[in-house]
Structures are given as C-alpha cells and as structure tokens.
Amino acid sequence: MPDNPCDKIWGPGKKYCEQGLHDGGGPPPSDPTDKYGLVGGASKHVRDLAEELITAVKGLVAPDHTWVPKKPDSWVYEQFLWLGQHLAVAIFICVVVVCGLTAWQGVPRLRQMGMSLGWTLAAVAGMAAVPGAVELLNKAVNEAFTAAFNSGQGTLFNVIEDDLARANSIGPLGSLFIVSALVVALAFAALVYMTRQPGILVFVCLAPLVLASLARGGDTTAVWRWANRLLGLIFCPFALLIVTPFVGLAKGNLILDGALLVAADVIMLRMIFHGVPYIGPRVARMARSMVEDRTQSVAVRGLMKAGVPDFSEEENTPRPPRTVATPGRALTQDRDVLFAAYGVNRPSRPGRPTIESAVAKAQAPKDAERYTRIMQARQQAREQAGATTPQNSAAPRTAAPRTAAPRPPANRPTPPQRPASPPTP
Predict the structure, then answer these.
(1) Is the predicted pLDDT of residue 85 greater than 70, yes or no?
(2) Residues whose CB is less than 8 angstroms from the CB of residue 168 and which lie 6 or more positions away in sequence, other chains included
(3) pLDDT, tens digit (0-9, with 9 covering 90-100), for 19-35
(4) pLDDT of 424 strictly over 60
(5) How many C-beta atoms lie closer than 10 Å to residue 152's C-beta?
(6) What is the distance between the alpha carbons of residues 358 and 273, in angstroms, rounded to a whole number?
(7) Do 163 and 182 form a contact (C-beta atoms < 8 A)?
(8) I want to staple 304 with a disulfide (CB 3.0 to 4.6 A). Which of 97, 192, 288, 351 is the partner?
(9) Interatomic CA distance for residues 93 and 100, integer angstroms
(10) How far is it, in rounded angstroms, from Cα 267 to Cα 312?
C-alpha cells in the first residue's frame, strides 16, 4: 500500500483527499445543527470549484500568453519573415529597373524610386517588430482585462465570490446554480479561446507578406485591412466590460449574478460573430444550432438569438440588413485588396446567394407562413379544377369533320386601260 493514497489522484480531488487525511481520515462527523446535512457540508467544495472556474474563464478570455512567437527568430515565423523580406527586395529591384528604363521622365521616376526605397526599409523593419509588438499588446490587454474584472469589490467575479462566501444563508442550491452558470460560461470562453488564438497566430504569420506590399510605393490599403482584423481579435475581450455597470445591482443576489453571467455568454457569442474574421459568423451559428437542438426553452432560444442574430450569407460585399459574406468570399475580398497593393488587379466575382442561405430563408418563420399559404392556395385550385373537369367531360365529344375553308378570291388590281390611239393618216 503506498504511503500516500492520494498520489494517484490529480486535480482538485487530490487537494480534498490530502485535506481529509490531514484532518484524521474518514468522513467528518455530522453536525446535528446542520439543517442541510451532507449537501451543506459540500458547500465549501462547491465554492472552491467556482473559484477555479472563474480563474479558468478569465484565463481563456484573456490569456497571459498567446500562440504567437515572441521573437522573430522562431522557426514558424522565420519562414514567413524570409519570404516577406525577399519579396520586398525583389519588388524594390523591379522598381529600380523600371525607373532606370524610363529615366527620361526625370523627377517623377526619382521620386518613385525614393519612396520605394523608404517604404522597403520600413517594411523590413516592421516585419521583425511584429511578434514583439503583438506580445506586448496582448500582455497589456490581459492586464487591463484582469484589472477590470478583478481589481475591486465592484467587479463581476469578485462579487460572485463574495456572494458564494455568504451563500450559507441562501442554501447550497444557490451555490449549485452559480456553478452551473460558470460551467456554461467556461464553455463559451473556451470557444472564444479556440477561435481567437489561431486567428491571431495566422494574422501575425501573414504580416511579412502584407508589409512587403509597401515596397511598391506605399499603398497602405492592405496594411490597414490586416491591422483592422488583427486588432479586432486582440481587443475583443473588452466587450465584456458592458456588464460592469450592472454589477452593483446584482451584489448579494446569486440569481442576478447568474443573469449577468448569462449576459456575458451572449456577449462572448457576439465577440465571435463580429470579432473573428471569415469564420466567426459560421462558428457562432454552429454554437447556436447546437444549443437550440438540445433545448425547447423559449428563453434559452431567445438568448442564443440575441448572441447570434439571424443572417444570410451572400458571395458579395456585405450589405444590410445582416447580410454577411461567406468565408470564401470574405477571404477572396481581402486577397484582392492585397493583390491590388502589389499591382495585380483581379476581376471581382459576381454576387450570388448560397444554397444554404436560400434554404434558411425559405424556412424562416415569415417566409414559411407565406410558403404555406401559397401551397394551400395551389392545393385548393387543384381540387377545384379536379372537381369541375369530370362534369364537363361526361358527354363524349364527337370530332366534327374538318372541311377545307374556301379561299377568298384574290383581289388583283386591274391594269388601267390605255385609250386607243387614233389612226395615223
């Protein structure tokens, strides 16, 4: 028998096991004054579990470390860095050659060559600075998020911990309720983590290819589009600050604490829907469908709809109301912007709705009612036509012989009669 029977237990259970051995082993004696019995004795363990869930939620929404390499000499980033630097130098050489062949134009070509040289140096320097800048920015976001949610007694998670510490007056059911809400919040936080971290990694690795487009002459359109996508992924956790003003109203009430956690879940879905580029709407819709397939509650369905609104997909530029581009179309649009920065103009594809969007639109509540009315009207028209057709066709028809109609005489114009000429003497 091992010296410590708790060695083969991992996680929080090991701490509870060692605490039981330290107290003398075996279950603690029952307290006759404890009106909750065994369930009331487990409230401390429930509070410990809630604290660990809160720490996990904060670590998933705004983690201390990202998947992004901290230095440019990382093997993953080094491949893209080599490609971006050589691409920028190649573009600069092409600009110098073109300017040399058209040197007779004078000052404009000299100005273009100077701009290309300056932007090439700036692009090469920026490629090496992107990983460190993203790492510092992520740390700043994490510290700011932690300070906003863990700095004082008026923040959401601190209020929940204080209410759980005073939950003995409410009973263990309140603790179990808030733990259930924290488990659901942990699931959505994990979804945010699994969509946000790979997105940041992909955009950081693409930084050298995007910055290399500056070497042509300083076209910053693609760089601004790339920075917009990356900063949206980095700063999206601050959307949870929306629930901070309402924390004071929920203080001392576990039910309102759970309601605020549900509101935080809805905001997390919105973060995925708007913050994650390309695949965000589809991932959020998959989460909504998974929840709606497993419940018939109107309230839960309403909350999921608030987090992920109904939308249609179209392979065209997003247009209101709630029409988003498909992942392939959105990726193609950003690719066309990058190619345009390199000087390659690609023809845009014509917009067309997808099959999934057409089916979803036909199955929408408003369109479904209209489709049902149309089908009923068609069915009634068929029944009326089927009821009137046998009465009219009861007596057999005899086909009358067809006789050829006489042709009308052709009205040909009579030629004018010429007067007889008098005899010649």
Answers:
(1) yes
(2) 40, 43
(3) 665 554 444 444 444 44
(4) no
(5) 11
(6) 20
(7) no
(8) 288
(9) 10
(10) 21
